[in-house]
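Re: succinic acid structure - here you go.
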Amino acid sequence: MVDTRSINQQIRDFDGQQQVWLFGYGSLIYRPGFSYLESRPAFIKGWERRFWQGSHDHRGTMAQPGRVATLIEKPNAICHGMAFLITPEVFSYLDHRERNGYLRFSTPLYFSDEVQGTDKALVYVATPDNGAFLGPASELEIARHIAHCHGASGPNKDYLLNLHAALNKLGTPDPHVESIARHLLQSA
Ligand code: SIN
């Protein structure tokens, strides 16, 4: 278990802003858990979603960490998700929830609803140098891993399947998530 809270509290990227767009690509899409002023489907560029981050708290334990989503830098990649317009009071909730390895980044944001447009977003990313990073594995191996993990927020399997359903509902399925979901459902 790592704790990125004090590092994140020193990041000044959004200082002075009364409202900030937060980009969610994992559990934040289907279970925000905080209040927000507005939400809009959106995407960011240059990052792809991968189940390469360990979860020692929400979806696993210290002895058996689960696997949850992070973003990996990749030129020309697009990651679809949900943007939430929040006020800075929400930062401490997010820093606590994302403390096991995630750092605050800022990135250009592209809205994908009918209004479209761009802005700047806050996004939590667990980079490969964090202590809870598990790294690449095949989608079959990831599914087998997820199938037997469970943490304080519930079964690891629910994280994956809820995210899969939310991305389908948004009309932006992710092949990596779909493939893990298929393996998980086949072995059920
Ligand atoms: C996110 O959803 O944006 C961050 C990763 C997670 O909490 O699942």
